[in-house]
Design goal:
- With 218 residues, the chain is an alpha/beta fold.
- The protein folds into two domains: 108 residues, 3-Layer(aba) Sandwich (Rossmann fold); 104 residues, Rossmann fold.
- The chain has ten helices and eight strands.
- It has a four-stranded parallel β-sheet with strand order 2-1-3-4, with helices on both faces. Strands 6-5-7-8 form a four-stranded parallel β-sheet, with helices on both faces.
- Helix 5 packs across helix 10.
- The protein is globular.
- The two termini are 14 Å apart.
C-alpha cells in the first residue's frame, strides 16, 4: 500500500478537500491519500508575497511530515511554494503540482500554455516553465478576465472565464495542450477537459501520476 500526503499550502480547508477528492479519484484503489492544510498564511495565493508566506508555512511542517513518514508528498499549490525546502527536509519524494503539470505537457511533445486567474503570478509561472526546461514548447500564461477574487467566488463565472481563456489559447496561440494553473481550479479542470479537442491538464491529477512514478522508482 502506498501512502501519499496532499499538502495544501493555502489555509482553505474546503480547497484541501476538493483537491483531495480529485487526487483520490486519480489514484488506484491501493493508494491511500491523506490531506493536510497549511496552518497559517492566506486562503488564496494570488501573488509573490503570498507564495513566500506559503513556502515558510509548509517548511514548518517538515518535522511532523517526517514523523508520519508518507511514501510521497504532493505539494498542492500551483506555484510549488516551499518545494525545494520540503525536498531537502524529507526522505520521500515531494512532487509539486506545478512542475508535474508542466512535465506532463512537455511529455506530450507539443506547445503548451497555462490558463489561470492570477495575473500577479504570471512571472513566477513563466520562471517555473524555464526551470522545467520547456524551451520553445512554452507559450506563456493566458489570464481570465476580471478580478481574481470575484472570479474565484462565483463557480459559474469561474468556469466560463476559464473556458474563454482556453479557447483564446487554442485559437490564438495554437497550443497543443493547456494547463489549468491552480490547485483550487481542479474541479473546473475536470469539467473543461471534456469541452476541448486538446489535452486540458489538471495539475492535481498530473501530480498524482508523477508522485506514484517517483515512489515506484525508489
Amino acid at each position: 500500500m502506498t501512502r501519499l500526503l496532499l499538502l495544501n499550502p493555502n489555509t482553505n480547508t474546503a480547497t484541501t478537500q476538493a483537491m483531495l477528492a480529485i487526487a483520490r479519484r486519480a489514484a488506484p484503489e491501493s493508494v491511500v491519500i491523506a490531506g493536510r492544510t497549511a496552518p497559517r498564511g492566506l486562503p488564496l495565493i494570488t501573488d509573490e508575497a503570498a507564495l513566500a508566506v506559503a513556502a515558510d508555512a509548509v517548511a514548518e511542517l517538515v518535522p511532523e511530515i517526517r514523523a508520519d513518514a508518507p511514501d510521497g508528498v504532493i505539494l498542492a499549490g500551483f506555484g510549488d511554494p516551499g518545494l525545494e525546502r520540503l525536498q531537502a527536509g524529507l526522505a520521500c519524494p515531494v512532487t509539486g503540482i506545478g512542475e508535474a503539470s508542466m512535465r506532463e505537457a512537455m511529455d506530450g511533445g507539443g506547445s503548451f500554455c497555462v490558463v489561470t486567474t492570477t495575473p500577479d503570478l504570471a512571472a513566477s509561472i513563466s520562471a517555473m516553465a524555464e526551470r522545467c526546461g520547456a524551451g520553445t514548447l512554452w507559450r506563456g500564461v493566458v489570464l481570465t478576465e476580471g478580478d481574481v477574487h470575484a472570479v474565484m467566488a462565483d463557480e459559474g463565472r469561474l468556469l466560463a472565464s476559464l473556458a474563454a481563456a482556453c479557447r483564446m489559447a487554442i485559437d490564438q496561440s495554437k497550443v497543443a495542450a493547456v494547463i489549468i494553473g491552480g490547485g483550487p481550479l481542479g474541479v473546473a479542470a475536470d469539467v473543461l477537459k471534456t469541452r476541448f479537442p486538446i489535452p486540458i491538464i489538471n495539475p492535481v491529477v498530473a501530480a498524482v501520476r508523477l508522485a506514484l512514478r517517483r515512489c515506484a522508482e525508489r
